[in-house]
Structure formats: C-alpha cells, structure tokens
Write a structure and sequence with these properties.
The structure holds three protein chains of three kinds. By secondary structure, chain A is an alpha/beta fold. Chain A is built from twelve helices and 15 strands. Chain A has a five-stranded mixed beta sheet. Chain A has a five-stranded mixed beta sheet with strand order 8-6-11-14-13, covered by helices on one side. The longest helix of chain A is centred in the last third of the chain and has 45 residues. Chain B has two domains: 320 residues, no CATH class; 148 residues, Immunoglobulin-like. Chain B is globular. Chain B starts with a strand and ends in an 11-residue tail after the last helix. By secondary structure, chain C is α/β, with parallel strands linked by helices. Helix content of chain C is 55%, strand content 15%. In chain C, helix 2 crosses helix 12, helix 3 packs across helix 5 and helix 16 packs across helix 22. The radius of gyration of chain C is 31 Å and the shape is globular. Classes of the chains: A alpha/beta, B alpha+beta, C alpha/beta. Chains in contact: A-B, A-C, B-C. Strand 8 of chain A pairs parallel with strand 5 of chain B. Chain C: This is Gaa1-domain-containing protein. Chain C: InterPro entries: Gaa1. Chain C: Pfam families: Gaa1 (PF04114).
Chain lengths: 499, 530, 639
C-alpha cells in the first residue's frame, strides 16, 4: 500500500470511530423510535367488532316460547293427553311459521302469568276470551270436530295471518310514535267552515283509552292543529252531484307542499290523521267507488303514513267556529280503526265479544310479531356493518360504534336461545337491539377519513423521506463494513502475536 | 307549549290572530312598510324543562304547529329570529318600526335552566330546528358566534317563575343565548316557509301583499319571528316583515308617488277571516301637500284603514300632486334617529387594524347608551389602546361602566360591553387597536375567499345606567351598526402540495448537510509528491 | 477490460483509494471550472443583455386571457343610452360655466356635492392640506357613496376623476371626466343590481387630492396631511376606475396602470376591461397615450435601410419596445402613471382610462357603455383576484410578458456579478507562483492521477491576509456619508437653496473618497489584497441589490444592471488611461443618479407618496459607485 507511510486516521484531529458510530447509531435509534409513533399517529382508528358473533346470528330463526295449558274443567275429554298431543301437532303448522315454539300441555298448578289457558267447559258451543285465557264451551254432542275448530281459532289468535296488502299498510316498528291530527279547510268561509275543533277534550274520552291499551307496544305522543287554507294540489273531477276524487288522485291527495304537516323536531315516525273539509264549490267531495255510502264522511288510508277523512258539512249556514263535537266523535272512531290498521293489530276473531277493545291475545300476537321483525332487522343491520367495515379499509371504527354493536348483541342474546320472558319484555329487548344497531350503522364518524387514501401521504412525503433515508443507509453500511474489517485485522494481529 | 289543564275548554276559542301594516314615507322619497302578524295562544306557557316531558299532547288551533313543536321540544321561553338584507340607513330612514334591523341573520333565545340536557345543547337544537323551519343556514352559527350579552337583549315578555323560589331568584333561572350571522342572504326560500306560519298563508288579508318578486327588489327588507310569554295572556308569536321600497326608482318620471299596487304590485282582494283585527296605518307627513286615497279616518295624524269595513279590492295610494319629480334636496319629510352610530375597521396591515366607532347624539340632552361589540375570536382587541374622544379632546370620564369577556382562541368570541355617557349634540368617538389572528388552514371557508364578516355592533339607549343585573332591565329600542368585512392573512390555497414538497425538500437538504459533517471520516490521502 | 471486471475492481477497491480517486475527480472538475470562469461570466453578461434586448420579440410574450371565471366581462346588455349622454352634456355645460368664471376649488367641490345630493346620493366635501418642505398643497375633494340596495355595505367600488388631467407635463382640465362621473352616478342609481357600494370621487389637483382621500378613507393620515375624518364611508374597496377625458371626443382608450413604487393592479382587471371595451364599446384599447397604429422612433427608422424601415417585424418590435420603455420609465422612478397608482398600496386594483383626444368618433356614449359594463363585471367579483397575476409587462394592450419571460435577464447579470465578486475575493487571498518541476515517475501506471500531478507541479499558491475590517469600514463610510447627504436633501432649509444642498452633498461624497486615502497608509491602499477585497464586497453587494430589486421593481433592476456594468471590469493597476476613464465614468454615473433625482422631483415624491427611489439612489446606488471609484483614484494618486 502506498498510504502505509501516512499516520493513522485516528491521528487526524477530533475524530474517533467510536463517537462517529455513536452518532450514526443515535440517528438510527431516532428513526426506529420515531417510525412506530409516526405510524400510530397517522393511522386510522379501527376497533375490532365481534364479527364472529354477528355472523353466527345471521340466518338463525328465532323461536319465542309460548305455553298453552289445557284445563279440562268438566272432564269433557276422555283422554286429555292424547287431545293435547293432537292439538300440539295440528297447531305446529301455523305457529312455527310465525316463529313461535308452542308447547301445549295439561293444566299445571303453577303457571307464569303470561302463559295461556284453554278452559274447556260444557255448554252451548261458544268461546269467550278474558285476559290470556280462552273459555271454550262444548256441547258433548260434537266432540269430534272439536280439535279442528279449536286449531283454527287458536291459530287465528296466536299467530294471526295478515294479507300482503295489510302488511304494506303497517308502519315499521318504532318505540315512539307521534300521532298528529290536522283539521284542514280547503278554503275558509264566513259560514260552514271550521276554524277549530275541540280535539283536546274529546281525545281524552275516545282515543286515549285505546292508546293506553297499546302503551306496552308503543309510546305515543299526540299533537293536533287546524289550518284554514289547505288547497288541493289537483282539481277533482266534476260530476252531477259534487266532485269526485279518482283512485290515482288519492295517491297525490296529501299536498305536503302546501299543508305544513311535517314535524321538524323528531325523527320518530309520525302518523297523520287529516280531517279535510272541501271548499264550497267542491262539496260534496266523493271518492270514486268508495265502499261506505255515508255522504258526509269519506275516509281512506294512506299506507304507512296515516288516515284521511273527508267531511262534507251540510249547508246549515252556521257561522265560522269550532267543529261540532258529534262530528268529531264520528271522525275519531274512524281514526281509531285506521290507527289499528296502521299499527298492524289483527282483525277480531269470533271469540272476541266487544269489538272496541283489543284482547290480550291480539296484543301479544302483535308484540311477538314485532319482536321477531326487530330481531331480524337488527341482525341484518349488524351484518351489513361488518360487511362494510371489512370491504372499506379506510373506514374508521370508533369506540361508540363498537359500544353500540355490543349493546345490540347483548340485547339479541336474549333471543338465542329465547328466555322465558313476557312478550312486552322481549319486545323491549328487541327494540333496544334494533335502535342501537341502526344507530351504529348510521354513525357519521365512519365516513370521516373515507376520502383521503394513504397513497397521497406517501406521494407528498416522498421528497422528505427518500433523501433522508438514503444517506442513513449508505453510511450505516459503510461504517459496518469498516468495523468488520477492523475486527478481522485485530483477529489477525492477535493470531500473529500468538504465533 | 302545553296548556295547563284548567284552561282546556277556554283555549280553543280564545286564541287570537291580529295583523297590521304600517306605511311611512321617508325623507329620501322611499317608503318604509312594516307587516305585523300576531298570534296569541291564550293561557299557554313555555315548557318547564324539568317537570313536564315533551310527550304531553299538544293541541294548536291557529298557532303554527311546526313552531310550537320546536319551542316545546327545547323548552324555549322566548325566541327571536331576524333575517335582514341590507343596511338600515338611520340618517335618512330614522328609527325603524321594528327595532331589529341588523344585517344578515340574528337569533337569540331565553331558556330556563335545569332538565336533562344543558342550555347549550338545547340552543344548538333550536338553532338547527329553526334553520330547518325557515330554510336559513343558521346552523353555521357555531359557538364561535354564540354569546350571552348582559344588557342589549333583555326579555321582551315576562319570564314565568318555573320553580317555587323567592322572587328575586326567578330571573336567575333563565339564560340568554345570542348569535348573529351577517353573511346570511335573505331570499324567497326564507319567505315561503315564513308565510306558511300564518293562518291565512298568503291567500288573503295583508299577507297577500307579500309578493316575493317585488319585495326582493326593495332597497331593504327583513323578516322577524318573535315569541314571548305574557303573564295572564299566554304565548304570543309575532311575525314581522319590514321593507323599504323606492318608488322614485320605479317611476319613469322620478316621482315619489306610491301605492300598494306600485310597491307590491298587488291589491288586497279579501280579508283573512280568522283575523280578529287587521289594520293598515299610513303615517302621512303633515306639512307636505300630500294626498291619500281612498279616504281613511285619521287618528292623531295617522290614517287608519280597517280591513273589516274596507271595500275590495283595496289599493291605497300616496300622492304628492304638487311635485312632478322628486328632488332629494327639498324633501318635505324629515326623519332622523336620535342616536346614530358609525363603525369602521381599517386594516393598516394584514395583521393589525384599528376599530373606530363614533356615536352621535342628535338630541339636545345627555343620553346614556350601552354599546355591545361581539366579534369572533380571530379579531383580538387590545383593550389598553381604548381611546375615547369628543371632537378631538380625550374624554375617558365618559366611559361609565365596562364589561369585557376576552375571546378563547378557536372557540368563543370577544364580548365588549361598555356604557357611555353621550353629551348633547356631540359625537363620541372611540378607537381600539385590533390584531388579526392567523387561522389554521382547516378554519378557512372552502368557498370563495372575500374576507370575514363581523356582526353588527348594537347600541342600546338606557335611562338609568346604574340598574342591577343579571337580567337587563332596559327595554328600549336597539340601534344596529353596519357589518364589517375584514380580510385575514390568507395563504394561497391553489397549490398546497407544492408548498409541502418545497418545505420537505428544504428540510431534507439541511438534514443531509448536518448528517454528512457529523459522520464524515477523515483519512490521509497521498495525491502527489510535493 | 470487460465491464464485469471493472465493476469487480470498483467493488474490491478499498476505501482509501476510492476516496483518493474521488478527490482527484473533484479537483479536475474545479480546475476545469476555474480556468473557464471568466468565459462563463462573459457568457452570462451576453445572455443577460441580449435577453433584455429580445424582450420586445413577440415570441417571448403571449396573448392576454381572463383567469377569474366570475368576471364574465362583456356578458351583460348595457342600458346606458342617449338620454344619459344628454345629461352628461348638461353637466359638462355647468362645469364649463364654472371653468369660465374660474370658480374656486371650494365652489367646484360644492357643485359636485350638490349634484350628487340631488340624486339622493349622500355625499360631502373633503378639504385637505399637505405641508411639504418646499410648498403647501391645498384642495377640496367631493365624493359620494351610493349604497347598494340589500347589500350590507361592506364592499365598494370607486369611480374617480381628478379635476386635472396631466400627460407629458401638460395639464388640461378633466371636465368631461367629471361630467362622466356625475352622469354615471345619476344613471347607476336607477338600478338595484349592485352588490357593492359605488363611491364616486372627484378629486382636486392631479395626484394629491386622491392621496388625501385615500389616506383619510383608510384612516392612515400621514403627519404632513391635515384633513378631517370622513363622515360618509363604506366598506372595503375592491377595485377603482379612474377616468381621464380631457379632449372633446376620443378615438381610442389608453390604459395607464403603473402604481407607486412599481406596484401593479391585478392583470385580470385590465384584461377584462380590454374585453369589455372591444365587445361592448367597440373602442380600440391601447397602452398609454399613443394610438394603437402609431409608428414610434421615426428618426431611428429613418436610419434603417428602406427595406427594414416598414417591415412588419421591425415595426412590431419597435412598437413593443416603445411600450416597454414607457413602462420602464414609470417604474424605474417608482412614479405612478396616474391617480390610480395611489390605490395599489391599499390592495385595491385600479387603473386609469385615458380617452385619447381626437376629432372622433367616440364620446360620452361609448365611455358610458364601457364604464357600465366594466362596473357590472367588477360587481360580479366574489373573491380577491388570484395572487399570481401581479407580475407582468404589457408589450401591447393585447399581449404581455410573463414573469418567467423577463426575470432571467437580470438574474443572469446578477449571477455574473456575483461570480466576479467571488473571483476577486479568491484572488485577494491567494496568489499564484509559477514553478517548473519535473513530473515524478513514481506512479506513472496510475494514468488517472497524471494530469493532477502535472497541474499541482506547475502552479503554486501562496496565501495573503485580507483586510476585511478596513474594507467594511471604508464601505460603511461611503454609505454613511450618503445617508447624511439624504437627510440634508430632505431638509426644507437646504431644499430652498439648491446650490448649497448639492454642494454639501458633493462634499460628503468627496469626503467619503478622500478620507480613506488620507487616513490609511499607502502600502495597504496599494496592496492588491485591499483593492480586491473592496471590489469583491462592493460587487457582491451590487449583485444582491440587483437580484432583490428584480422582484420588487424589475425596470429599476434592469436599468441598474446596465448602469453597474463598468464596475464589473477587473482592476488594472498599470494602464493610466484606462483607470482615469474608469474613475471618471464611475463618478459620472454616480452623479447621473443625483441629476435624475433632481430632474424628476423624486424627493417630493418621497415626501408626498413615500416613493423610495430617491433614498435608494442616494444611500445605495451612489455609494456603490464611490466604492468602485476609490480604487482607480488610489492607483492614480500613488503611482
């Protein structure tokens, strides 16, 4: 080597290899510590959802246990056990399809108060409901057809079938429902039009009890208003006696642009009940081929939205004032039926004597139906959340989302397997599951970083990272090489010494 | 908005709707008109946020349901909202019939405290609900614009004592929230829902005159919603629409003759049947040769028309037969406000500026005024630079009392509330240095950058400056200054990536230098023989 | 030797040798550069100056375009018609009547105010007084604010006319300009479509009136101005249009856009005006007060052979050259080319429409239409115009030079100067000694290191100390002396007696030359170390000044880059003739600056408008020449 004559590099002022190595090392330490911090601070928070549970729920049928006790008071049946079995099997078809796990058995002493009793008595063939028990009077003559009759009735009571048309009417379930009653004058006149109605007091008398009965199902809030100018969006057809609204005009009858019906404050579903009073030139206003032939009232029902009653007042020339209470009473009774239809209360069967009231059986059936709907809907919601989160990697999943999902799962746990709870309790759980799961699904935080992909980050910061990392690597490697070489050298020297 | 039960029967029949229109010719040939629609819901009272729930049944007759729902949901005792377009010219137009003429949107509410959700959450709620109701963009009235001034916005009605406390404390149960958005534009989309709140909509009565095409060509127009509770009366909602139109601009001969037809190009076809009372008043100038048709019966200088007796179609016309074309110099009418305020913010540089306010006392006796300045945090006052002068002479003694809430950066605005003594026929002038903050880049608006609007300042004439708080006892008419536009230092947003690239390259450069010098190895190298 | 082996060799090479090779490579490169440094400088000079010459070429420029889409120039139908022209004529009649009975400033202002009040536009009169060191300017502005319907009055547009129109030192009354303002005010009030307030200003005098108005409006009243605060105000002013209409009719409209201290309005404004007047007014737009078709430099043309004389390329070149020179003459001195120039310092875009007097065909009708349409355009504006459109040079009214097209010229020269400075800095510290020695045979096989060896063998360097401190002191002396001179020039006492003033200034300059010669002993002064260091410092300062001013005021830096050329030549200690020439040329150039200041009343501009041309010349420009002159002076004195 030519350079051997030269002094060692350590002799050059102010440099020792150890310090230099320390410097390089410290740079690397900084980088290695910094990297995870940087990654952590720039990464999106994606908490893990308990997917396995959610997916496992998908497609599992819910079976709500229903116990029916046969209580043969007058010992009509020879072999009650056999009868029970036949009843069980014959009922199976309709109940299982409705998602019920029906157990028919002989009367026991201790039964929880939400089990059903079927009391057989001797007497004229007749049935009567009180509470959750059904009194069935049989005359011993025709016991043969008893099972079949009973099956039909019980099916109707426990798992009432509703036609597709009815299904479409029924509003989707929500724990809170807002009922809004509006008195709409198409145009106001000095006589024979109504600036107000006495809804306040009449409501208490007529509708309130019904709502009270339905309270386990929904929590109702009520409001009413009157409008004196509520024009129609279309012109009804002129006929010899008054005007007629055709079928397709019914669909556009509600003029939501002009009538201020929408509620700004809540997101709860609102059921509107309108009393529409046509202007003088439109009276009497008929609905084309309407069923009932009362010429004062015309009523129709807007699926999932509410009910409308058209009232053509007789020309009595009474001054502008409140609506007569008698009229309002009739209107309210129409509203009641419309409300029941919208809520999906099943039609009365023959055993129910007073038609005004809703029997416990109907209520329970409805609650069970709602429960099953809710459970299915919330399971769907959860599944779709999981799907979305998995498909979009950029989507953040915050704490609140996870909490919502977990609460929903806890609530759903009550149904897999179903606990022996009262229908109202079950409904409450299902409602909570539904609300929390949908709340999680519509969580705004999940859209936050959706539109800022990582590629941008790297593209932007490349001019910073590249020039910094390259020299770090090069010098690191170089230094390492030198160090190894020196090690070798030292080894050799030591060997030499040894020899 | 729920009735206490003992009035059930009474309520349905004793709600009352009244409407009135006041027309006033102005000094500079324009005509000011004020529509007022008042609906009283008898014996009702605001919801107590603690005791009664939102779910009690609510029944309305002519009171607008959609508004009632909002008031009840958020338990609002008193609510005021004004949407104005334009700058009210106090010099030529005098004091407005309806005091709240601040440019843009302004909203304030009195709420009783307590209950599940806090005052502020309810304030946010009612803000969004009302902006939904009137299609206004009030939801952008963030906390950066919300304040609770002490003096300028006293409750106009009474405040029910909601909890049995000793009377003195009753006022303490209530809180004020106020916000204003000067850049809000008022237009048809606000008027349409506004009209829906009226029982007769725009189809009859005075409301039928509210014709957007004409109104939104006016020199100034504004609408207001005022809800208050009156003891032994009930809840009253007052809807106002105010407009200043310029007949001179419309008429080919530059005359100032005006009529309902020319101002609104409508005449009133029929009255609103549910209106218990509907009046048109014309404040006719006394001195001028002034002709009014059809004839009205005069009540101390004011011509009054009652729509109940009027014959239809009703078109009132104001004429000055003497003059062919209007000459502004020799206007017969003289309208001017007792107090006038001018406010300017001149920015010497991008970062600093000076606020200059002069309050002119036109009357010949001493007056007291409470001044209110609320500016977002990015304008910071230097309070120590406050200088009060009257025609050049420093007069610190005129500052009677001062309350000052400094801003919280990126959050609350500054509130500056002095009480001044105004010497007669003099202009009090005070200046203050301000600093403009440098915003975070996310805080700049995404849309066109023309600068930031500052809300109008408010001046409230008061009788006795020594009355106690917390709830301001002063119920006189507010005076609004014009709004201000201030441009903050704004980066060029058209090329953010270039900036990032540039800086990171520089950083890399420095790094490389330092790193090299720190880690270079020095060795002896023999290049040649000497 | 195959590539593989090469690569192997490189890899196997141990660190010492590789380092050695790197070192040698570096040396070779530096040597290469050092040897050709002077050549490089020469190239840069040539490039720079030729670039300056080429600026008028059409290839460098490009056509104007509208950057801001919101402007939508010329997209509206105008309503200005003959009835408005008639009202303008009526106003003109009254104004002429005022002129004929030469009414006082107060009467004039009051007339305008009353007319505005009659229209229902709130307006007032603003009296003002400037107390300058030499004179006192008083005047009365009249202005009115038409507040736009339904607008919150936070933004405004100014339409102004000064009472006097001034072109090439000739003053004429701007009566038609004022009449246009009044007629416009009356006409525009009839429309409710304004989103911004309109401020109509009729200022007294030519420039001072507008200066008084703007300072009062922006609450930035300087000490030498006395004026009451304005009572009728509006919001932020965005744009301003100033009308000069001296003749009784006009053929073309000329644009004047240069502001104080070489500030310019946003180009979009001028471009959109160009579009408007071309489409709506059907009036030819030109630059300054020369007609679009004019053929400048006639005598220069006559020198050319007849073939070239009217050749379109030559013609075009000369026309653009003329416009650029006009632009430069305004900007170099930091003068505004009209009242509009006062707006720019408040971030307001403004320019002057100059109706070039002619026998026709245009009159009130055309200018009214154009004004209306332009105002509608500016009325559309929602945000500040884009920041990148403030750097441009108009070559014709329809074409302009982008910053990239003109800036490099000066930068080249500045770089060359800096290189010269560095060279002389090196030479100050190092000295070459020629030695002859045989290249050693030791490592002949190492071909790569051969030439290095020879180089090192032949050239030897010795170092010598650089008298840095002394040099800095000398430089500071010259700058300090001229700073004192500047104070003197701005004292009213001295300005009354010019000979005294310039005498003392000359004395100061002289002292800054003589003092070092007297105080420092001969050897040091004569030593190349000192001379070269001084040259190095003053040149580097020159280069810095050039590159900085090139952004602030391109025209000025272009002029400087030419002026400073003589200082760039190397020192020659021996040739008597040359150094006397040098000395004289430097002193002449220095005094030229002084003459310029005097002839252009730049000191007054500084007092009134804060134009920094005069102080810059005195405190920066002249000292640099003094420093350059010092070296030849020494050499003459001592040899």
């Amino acid at each position: 080597m030519a350079d051997t004559a030269l002094p060692a590099e350590s002799a050059v002022a102010f440099q020792t290899p150890s310090i230099r190595r320390l410097i390089i090392l410290s740079y690397w330490v900084a980088v290695i510590i910094g990297l995870p911090i940087w990654l952590y601070t720039t990464s999106i928070q994606r908490l893990s959802l308990s997917e396995s549970q959610v997916i496992s729920l998908q497609g599992q049928p819910v079976d709500i246990p229903v116990n029916l006790y046969l209580d043969d008071v007058d010992n009509i049946l020879a072999n009650s056990d056999h009868f029970v079995r036949t009843l069980q099997t014959s009922l199976q078809s309709c109940t299982s399809s409705a998602g019920l796990a029906l157990v028919v058995s002989n009367a026991q002493s201790s039964t929880s108060d939400y089990d059903y009793r079927l009391v057989l008595k001797a007497g004229s063939a007749d049935c009567k409901i009180d509470g959750r028990s059904l009194r069935w009077e049989v005359n011993r003559a025709n016991k043969a057809s008893l099972a079949t009759q009973m099956t039909a009735t019980l099916c109707e009571l426990l798992a009432p079938r509703s036609s597709a048309a009815d299904e479409r009417r029924v509003v989707q379930y929500a724990p809170k429902v807002r009922l809004s009653f509006s008195l709409l004058n198409e145009e106001v006149f000095m006589e024979d039009s109504f600036s107000s109605w006495n809804m306040e007091s009449l409501f208490q008398g007529h509708v309130a009890p019904l709502l009270e009965r339905l309270s386990p199902l929904h929590n109702f809030s009520v409001e009413s208003q009157t409008q004196v100018y509520a024009p129609l969006a279309f012109d009804p057809q002129r006929v010899d006696n008054g005007h007629v609204i055709s079928r397709d005009q019914l669909t556009v009858f509600v003029n939501s642009a002009e009538w201020t019906l929408a509620s700004g404050v809540t997101t709860d579903p609102v059921l509107h009940f309108l009393l529409f009073i046509p202007s003088k030139e439109h009276r009497p206003l008929q609905i084309e081929s309407s069923i009932e032939h009362d010429d004062y009232f015309k009523a129709f029902l807007v699926p999932q939205w509410g009910g409308v009653v058209i009232y053509n007042p007789p020309a009595l020339g009474q001054p502008l004032g409140p609506l007569p209470d008698t009229v309002l009473q009739d209107v309210l009774s129409i509203y009641k039926n419309q409300l029941l239809a919208l809520l999906g209360v099943s039609a009365n069967c023959r055993c129910i004597t007073d038609s005004s009231d809703i029997s416990q059986w109907q209520l329970d059936a409805l609650m069970r139906r709602r429960t099953i709907e809710n459970v299915n809907r919330s399971v769907d919601a959860l599944n779709s959340i999981v799907k979305v989160v998995n498909s979009i990697q950029q989507m953040p999943v915050g704490k609140d989302v996870r909490e919502d999902v977990n609460t929903a799962l806890d609530a759903l746990a009550k149904f897999y397997p179903p606990l022996p709870l009262s229908p109202s309790e079950l409904l409450a759980y299902s409602a909570r599951a539904l609300s929390t799961s949908s709340h999680a699904f519509f969580n705004p935080g999940m859209l936050a970083l959706l539109y800022f992909p990582d590629a941008h980050n790297y593209a932007v910061y490349l001019p910073l990272f590249a020039p910094i990392l390259v020299p770090l690597f090069v010098t690191g490697i170089k230094e390492f090489k030198v160090w190894r070489k020196q090690r070798k050298q030292q080894k050799l020297d030591s060997h030499k010494k040894a020899e | 908005m729920i009735l206490s039960c003992d009035f059930l029967a009474a309520q349905a029949y004793s709600d009352r709707f009244t409407e009135s229109l006041v027309i006033r010719p102005l000094e500079d040939g324009k005509v000011a008109s004020l529509f007022t629609f008042t609906t009283l819901m008898a014996h009702a009272s605001g919801r107590d946020p603690i005791n009664d729930s939102e779910d009690k049944p609510q029944h309305y007759t002519i009171f607008p349901l959609s508004l009632g729902q909002i008031l009840r949901e958020y338990a609002i005792t008193e609510l005021h909202l004004t949407l104005n377009a334009g700058k009210w010219d106090y010099l030529h137009w005098g004091t407005p019939e309806d005091a709240d003429v601040g440019s843009g949107a302004e909203m304030w509410a009195w709420m009783a405290d307590g209950g599940a959700d806090s005052i502020d959450s309810r304030w946010v709620g009612v803000r969004n609900a009302v902006s939904g109701l009137l299609c206004a963009s009030l939801s952008s009235l963030s906390i950066q614009r919300t304040t609770s001034p002490l003096l300028a916005f006293p409750p106009l009605g009474d405040l029910p004592v909601i909890r049995p406390t000793n009377q003195t404390d009753a006022s303490k149960q209530y809180h004020l929230r106020h916000a204003s958005l000067p850049s809000e534009h008022v237009c048809t989309e606000n008027l349409t829902p506004f009209l829906k709140l009226l029982p007769c909509k725009s189809s009859s009565g005075l409301a039928s005159l509210l014709n957007p095409h004409k109104l939104f060509d006016a020199d100034w127009h504004g609408m207001g919603v005022h809800v208050r509770w009156l003891e032994r009366k009930g809840v009253e909602v007052k809807l106002t629409f105010q407009a200043v139109v310029d007949p001179v601009r419309y008429s080919p001969t530059h005359s100032r003759d005006a009529s309902l037809g020319s101002m609104f190009d409508r005449a009133i076809e029929k009255p609103c049947p549910v209106a218990a009372e509907s009046m048109i008043q014309v404040k006719s100038p006394t001195d001028a040769v002034f002709h009014l048709s059809p004839d009205a019966h005069m009540e101390n200088g004011i011509a009054v028309y009652d729509l109940a007796e009027a014959e239809y179609p009703l078109d009132i016309s104001l004429r000055w037969p003497a003059e062919l074309s209007f000459n502004y110099l020799f206007s017969s009418v003289h309208t001017s406000a007792p107090i006038r305020v001018t406010r300017v913010l001149r920015d010497a540089s991008q970062t600093h500026g000076r606020l200059t306010v002069s309050i002119i006392n036109e009357s010949n006796h001493t007056q007291y005024v409470a001044y209110l300045e609320t500016v977002p945090w990015f304008i910071q006052f230097y309070l120590h630079t406050l200088r009060i002068t009257v025609d050049g002479e420093p007069r610190p003694d005129l500052l009677h009392r001062l309350s000052y809430t400094p801003a919280i950066p990126h959050a609350d605005p500054t509130v500056f509330e002095p009480i001044f003594t105004l010497p007669p026929l003099k202009a009090l002038r005070f200046t203050m240095e301000v600093e403009k903050a440098f915003l975070r880049y996310t805080e700049h608006p995404p849309d066109a950058q023309r600068g930031w609007d500052l809300p109008p300042a408010v001046v409230l004439p008061i009788q006795n400056p020594d009355l106690p708080f917390p709830i301001s006892p002063y119920k006189s008419q507010r005076i609004y200054t014009s709004t201000l536009l201030v441009d903050l230092p704004t980066p060029d947003f058209s090329m953010p990536y270039n900036v990032i690239l540039m800086t990171s390259t520089l950083v890399a450069l420095f790094f490389a230098n330092i790193f090299n010098t720190l880690t270079r190895r020095f060795v002896w190298i023999q290049t040649a023989v000497a | 030797m195959s590539i593989v082996q090469k690569v192997k060799a490189i890899l196997s090479r141990d660190e010492i040798t590789s380092a050695k090779l790197r070192l040698q490579r570096r040396r070779r490169i530096t040597n290469f550069l050092v040897q050709r440094m002077t050549l490089l400088r020469a190239l840069l000079y040539v490039a720079g100056y030729t670039w300056l010459l080429l600026l008028p070429l059409p290839q460098l420029g490009r056509g104007i375009y509208i950057d801001e889409n919101a402007l939508q120039p010329g997209q509206v139908n105008t309503y200005w018609d003959w009835s408005n022209v008639h009202s303008a004529d009526l106003y003109l009649g009254q104004l002429e009547e005022l002129r004929d009975r030469n009414a006082s400033k107060a009467e004039r202002a009051d007339f305008v105010r009353t007319e505005l009040l009659k229209m229902g536009i709130s307006s007032e009169v603003q009296p003002y007084t400037f107390a300058l060191s030499t004179e006192v300017l008083t005047g009365q502005n009249a202005y009115g604010v038409l507040s736009a319907p339904r607008s919150s009055g936070t933004e405004a547009i100014v339409i102004s006319a000064s009472w006097i129109s001034q072109r090439d030192g000739i003053e004429t009354l701007n009566l038609r300009g004022v009449a246009t303002i009044l007629a416009l005010a009356k006409f525009l009030k009839g429309y409710s479509l304004w989103a911004k307030d309109l401020i109509f200003v009729v200022t007294d005098d030519y420039m001072s009136g507008m200066h008084a108005f703007l300072s009062a409006y922006h609450d930035a009243v300087p000490n030498n101005l006395a004026t009451p605060p304005l009572n009728v105000t509006s919001g932020v002013i965005w744009t301003a249009l100033n009308i000069e209409y001296p003749g009784h009719s006009f053929s073309e409209i000329g644009i004047f856009h240069e502001g104080l201290n070489a500030r310019l309005p946003n180009q979009d404004l001028i471009n959109s005006f160009h579009v408007v007047s071309a489409h709506t007014g059907l009036v030819q737009v030109t630059l300054y007060d020369t007609l679009y078709g004019a053929r400048p430099f006639t005598e220069l043309r006559n020198l050319l052979p007849s073939v070239l004389k009217d050749h379109p390329i030559v013609d075009g070149y000369l026309r653009r050259a003329r416009n650029i020179l006009q632009h430069t003459s305004f900007q170099t001195l930091g003068k505004a080319s009209g009242p509009h120039g006062l707006f720019h310092q408040y971030r307001i875009d403004a320019f002057t429409l100059y109706a070039i007097p002619a026998m026709g065909p245009h009159g009130f009708h055309a200018i009214g239409k154009i004004m209306e349409s332009t105002l509608r355009t500016t009325n559309n504006l929602l945000e500040r115009l884009h920041a990148s459109l403030f750097f441009y040079i108009f070559t014709t009214s329809g074409t302009f030079l982008k910053i990239g097209a003109y800036l490099p010229s000066v930068i080249c020269i500045s770089i060359a100067t800096m290189i010269a400075a560095l060279q002389s800095w090196v030479n100050a510290g190092w000295q070459q000694i020629q030695t002859i020695s045989v290249p050693d045979k030791k490592d002949k096989e190492d071909a790569s290191s051969k030439e290095i060896v020879t180089l090192d063998a032949l050239i030897q360097w010795t170092t010598r100390p650089r008298p840095v401190l002394l040099t800095i002191v000398v430089m500071l002396l010259s700058h300090g002396a001229m700073a004192v001179a500047w104070r003197i020039m701005s004292y009213s006492f001295f300005r009354q007696i010019p000979w005294l003033m310039y005498g003392s200034v000359g004395l100061l300059a002289l002292s800054s030359l003589v003092l070092p010669v007297l105080l420092v002993e001969r050897e040091i002064l004569l030593s190349p170390a000192f001379q070269k260091t001084l040259k190095a410092f003053s040149l580097s300062l020159t280069s810095t000044v050039l590159s900085i001013t090139s952004l602030l005021n391109f025209s000025l830096s272009a002029v400087l880059s030419i002026a400073f050329l003589p200082t760039n030549f190397p020192i020659n200690a021996n040739n008597k003739g040359l150094r006397t020439n040098e000395l004289i040329s430097h002193l002449v150039l220095a005094s030229l600056g002084l003459i310029l200041i005097d002839s252009q009343e730049s000191v007054k501009d500084w007092e009134l408008f804060g134009v920094w041309f005069a102080p810059f010349i005195t405190i920066v420009y002249i000292p640099l020449f003094l420093q350059a002159a010092l070296i030849p002076l020494i050499n003459i004195l001592y040899t």
